[in-house]
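S.,

As promised, the zinc ion run. Input:
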Amino acid sequence: MNPINFILILSAIMFVNWNITFFIQTFFHHRYSAHGQFTMSAGWERFFGIMSLLLTSGYLSPRAYGLLHRWHHAFTDTPQDPHSPKGESGISGIIHFFWKTRNEYQRAVVSCKRGDVTKFTKNLPQFNWVDKVGENWVIRLFWITTWIATHLWIAWQVDGWWAIPTSIVFALSNVGMAPIHGFIINWLTHKYGYRNHDVDNTSTNLAWLSPATWGESLHNNHHKHPDSINFAERWFEIDQTSWVVKLFNWIGIIKIANP
Ligand SMILES: [Zn+2]
Ligand SMILES: [Zn+2]
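Predicted complex:
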């Protein structure tokens, strides 16, 4: 295979994976589970729960994510915030940020398993068997191995040793899509960019990233109006997820809570 085609194929896989993973996370985990911006039938809830198991790289429990994210909105930039970059910088700051986010996510998983009932758990979706499969390490290792094996097989068709490390970097990026997305929203849009609203936290907007993040990078708008289905407020801000939400509402898959 010619090297240009090789890079094009890997980029296409990453592009599709990036968009599917981002869409499911913002549509289902963030806007539905954490914020309850719309409702759906138990059947559709199960459908999107299974999609988040099958289609995203690195399973995140919709219930635990919802709980973690509610903590973030309630305690933004305070010591109880599960992921605030405030006061953090450099590589050590980024490592600390990832480590804390990971630990807080685990705390949310344990809390969900225990069945804790708090003011943060109202109407969170529950998928016991999906969570069990998604959080099983054998299943996780199976997916990681599948990603790497597929990429190595593609690299095998290319003449040149460099294809192997390149394919591994692409494979690991696909496996780590959830932390990469988490970094963009929880770190970058709490550190860089502009603000439409002078809210009581560090949230910012990065409009140029909004098409690639399905509107999620309009984070300052979202902190100001967490119940709004449309994160975009100015002409140059794009939130494609809100278009899908409106379409799904129109078709009848979901029902917007506060139209
Ligand atoms: Zn935030
Ligand atoms: Zn939110």
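Strands lie at 38-40, 254-256. Residues 3-34 form the longest helix (32 residues).

- D.
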